[in-house]
């Protein structure tokens, strides 16, 4: 019994890695080999799928578009959430509790509910098929989340810090940017990580709000799967490449990851 | 949270957030409300329809069926992911070089775009060339996700467990590592068993993060769309058509704006109601 529990995390990680391994396995095979039958590793190792993606602009521009709107969204969400989270963690004001819950309700709204009105709204303000449209739309769920996380981290900073700074003659903006922001760098990193994550993985709104110029990589994949037959190798290679940015950003927040997922509240 | 000063100027700090979110939330929500009470015969002509659509949706068997499937799905995945996540967190190493490795590997599924998750599992479950499909058929199960509703459900649930259990693990783990060693030493002196330690030390410490975990998993599984849509397309038949999939079919497929809007609002209100209950429990904890 004891020995079994010791290996639980290992078994769990193997379970997590299996489908990812299978995707990688498929991405290094030729179409013939994939359709030829079952094999645990590529018999004729090929990079042709990756070559197609990295040389064809309709493919690689998908990655560029996704990275662009995800970055915009992360910057906008964190920048707007910083002062708001400070207000929620330090002050009581008229309607604060209701406002906080209202913000959270937007994290609870099923994107399917908003897909059609979003299309109409962003067409009306002539932002349809731009990166900024997707970045703004993703603020719907990322801003509440960023406020929630930052508020958790800020509440962990003692109020004496603010008071000491005022006694020392700091003006508010100077205190905020010179002292307060540096003390919660970890929280800002975690909030940015979460905004990146949820904007990167979301597809329904991103797909609804774009057609050509800002089309995300995920939407390019669905189109390819349906129009040009079922090119599994290509699909697998494109999918494998979407894991890379995620793995890259996790590496940066690896030391804060546990606290971050608890929204700074442990 | 407890010692906050009263200051209404704090509203100035909140304005950017309110404006950004309101632009995205209020205008589309009002559009939905607007559609939900009107009838249209095309040409952008709308007629007042009152609460007719709401009555239709609430009486429609199709809605009842999707809602039932949705509740069943959310129930199953919560019943699997929460205990499994806690169990894995309890068995994880507390310190050492393997901790960051474990955490990074476990968080990986959370950062994969949702349609890639669906596509990945689709490939993984193919009966002849996918690992899961091949192995299940080899050991004697007649497994084909596109034909058997049971196989489709099994795959969708397994996919969700694969995708989201790590969130519960990470949350529970964050709660566990915040327990000071002294607590465990005290328990040892008192001669407490493994279960008593769990029940009286670890579980209370994890209570708050677990509420967040249940809240997040409830909300996200209740809105699930992309992964099952890519994996099964809602089939075979309608067997894995959850609420969001059904809603998109009605709204964007058949363009029945009125019923779709009414259904959206009912759907949103259910999510909101349940989330509100969790939120109240959670903030009561915050105040203490």
Overview of the structural elements:
The complex is a heterodimer of chains A (266) and B (288). Chain A is mostly helical and 266 residues long. In chain A, 77% of the residues lie in helices and 1% in strands. Chain A has helices spanning 2-6, 8-27, 31-36, 48-55, 57-90, 96-108, 111-124, 131-155, 160-167, 172-183, 185-201, 204-208, 217-227, 232-253, 257-261; one strand at 91-92. In chain A, α11 (185-201) runs antiparallel to α14. The longest helix of chain A is centred in the N-terminal third of the chain and has 34 residues, at 57-90. Chain A starts with a helix and ends in a 5-residue tail after the last helix. Chain B has a single domain (8-287), classed as MetI-like fold (Orthogonal Bundle), CATH 1.10.3720.10. Chain B has helices spanning 11-36, 52-59, 61-91, 98-107, 114-125, 131-138, 149-177, 181-189, 194-222, 226-232, 243-253, 257-287, and strands at 5-6, 38-40, 46-48. In chain B, β2 and β3 form a beta hairpin. In chain B, α11 (243-253) runs antiparallel to α12 (257-287). The longest helix of chain B has 31 residues, at 61-91. At the A-B interface, α2, α5, β1, α6 and α7 of A face β1, α1, α3, α4 and α5 of B.
Write the layout of secondary structure elements.
The complex is a heterodimer of chains A (266) and B (288).
Chain A: H1 2-6, H2 8-27, H3 31-36, H4 48-55, H5 57-90, E1 91-92, H6 96-108, H7 111-124, H8 131-155, H9 160-167, H10 172-183, H11 185-201, H12 204-208, H13 217-227, H14 232-253, H15 257-261
Helix pairs in contact in A: 2-14, 4-5, 4-14, 5-8, 5-11, 5-13, 6-8, 8-11, 9-10, 11-14, 13-14
Chain B: E1 5-6, H1 11-36, E2 38-40, E3 46-48, H2 52-59, H3 61-91, H4 98-107, H5 114-125, H6 131-138, H7 149-177, H8 181-189, H9 194-222, H10 226-232, H11 243-253, H12 257-287
């Amino acid at each position: 019994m004891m020995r079994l529990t010791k290996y639980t995390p290992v078994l769990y990680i193997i379970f997590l890695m299996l489908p990812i391994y299978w995707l990688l396995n498929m991405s290094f095979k030729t179409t013939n080999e994939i359709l030829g039958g079952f094999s645990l590793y590529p018999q004729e190792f090929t990079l042709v799928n990756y070559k197609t993606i990295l040389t064809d602009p309709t493919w690689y521009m998908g990655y560029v578009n996704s990275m662009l709107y995800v970055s915009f969204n992360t910057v906008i969400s964190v920048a707007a959430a910083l002062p708001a989270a400070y207000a929620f963690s330090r002050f009581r004001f008229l309607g604060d509790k209701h406002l906080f819950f209202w913000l959270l309700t937007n994290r609870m709204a099923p994107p399917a509910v908003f897909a059609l009105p979003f299309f109409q709204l962003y067409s009306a303000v002539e932002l349809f098929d731009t990166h900024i449209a997707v970045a703004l739309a993703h603020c719907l769920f990322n801003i509440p989340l960023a406020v929630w996380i930052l508020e958790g981290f800020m509440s962990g900073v003692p109020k004496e810090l603010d008071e000491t700074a005022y006694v020392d003659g700091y003006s508010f903006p100077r205190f905020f940017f010179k002292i307060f922001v540096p003390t919660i760098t970890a929280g800002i990193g975690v909030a940015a990580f979460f905004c990146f994550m949820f904007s990167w993985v979301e597809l329904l709104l991103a797909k609804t709000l774009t057609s050509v110029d800002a089309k995300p990589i995920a939407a390019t994949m669905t189109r390819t799967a349906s129009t040009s037959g079922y090119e599994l190798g290509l699909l697998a290679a494109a999918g494998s490449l979407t894991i890379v940015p995620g793995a890259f950003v996790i590496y940066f927040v690896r030391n804060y990851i546990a606290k971050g997922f608890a929204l700074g509240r442990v | 949270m407890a010692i906050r000063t009263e200051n209404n100027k704090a509203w100035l700090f909140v304005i950017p957030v309110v404006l950004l979110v309101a632009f995205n939330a209020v205008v589309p929500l009002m559009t939905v409300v607007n559609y939900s009470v009107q009838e249209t015969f095309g040409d952008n002509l709308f007629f007042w329809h009152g609460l007719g659509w709401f009555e239709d949706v609430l009486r429609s068997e199709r809605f009842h069926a999707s809602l039932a499937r949705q509740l069943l799905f959310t129930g199953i995945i919560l019943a699997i992911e929460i205990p499994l996540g806690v169990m894995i967190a309890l068995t994880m190493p507390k310190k050492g070089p393997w901790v960051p490795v474990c955490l990074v590997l476990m968080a990986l599924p959370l950062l994969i775009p949702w349609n890639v998750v669906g596509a990945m599992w689709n490939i993984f479950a193919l009966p002849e060339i996918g690992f899961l499909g091949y192995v299940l058929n080899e050991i004697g199960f007649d497994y084909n996700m596109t034909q058997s509703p049971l196989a489709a459900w099994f795959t969708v649930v397994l996919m969700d467990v694969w995708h989201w259990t790590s969130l519960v693990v990470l949350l529970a783990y964050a709660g566990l590592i915040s327990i000071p060693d002294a607590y465990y030493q005290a328990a040892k002196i008192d001669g407490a068993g493994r279960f008593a330690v769990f029940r009286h030390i670890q579980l209370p410490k994890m209570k708050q993060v677990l509420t967040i975990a249940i809240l997040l998993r409830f909300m996200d599984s209740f809105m699930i769309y992309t992964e099952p849509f890519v994996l099964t397309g809602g089939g075979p038949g309608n067997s894995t058509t959850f609420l969001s999939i059904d809603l998109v079919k009605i709204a964007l497929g058949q363009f029945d704006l009125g019923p779709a809007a009414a259904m959206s609002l009912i759907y949103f209100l259910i999510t909101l109601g349940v989330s509100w209950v969790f939120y109240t429990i959670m903030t009561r904890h915050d105040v203490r």
